[in-house]
Amino acid sequence: xxxxxxxxxxxxxxxxxxxxxxxxxxxxxxxxxxxxxxxxxxxxxxxxxxxxxxxxxxxxxxxxxxxxx
Length: 69
Prior knowledge:
This protein is mainly α. Helix content is 72%, strand content 0%. The protein has one domain (5-59). The chain is built from two helices and no strands.
C-alpha cells in the first residue's frame, strides 16, 4: 500500500484541531484556563499549514484549510 504519510498526517490533524477547538470553547464556558489548549491548537495549526503548503506545491493536494475551529 503506497500512501503518502504527509497526506495521512493532514487528514489526522484536521479532526484533532476541531476537537481542540471544541475543548477550548468548553473550557471558556466553564471559566477555566484554556492557555495550554490554545498553545496546542496553535502548534497543530502551524503543523497543518506547513504540511499543506509543502504538499500542495509538490503534489497538488486539495485540502481545505482550517483556520478557526
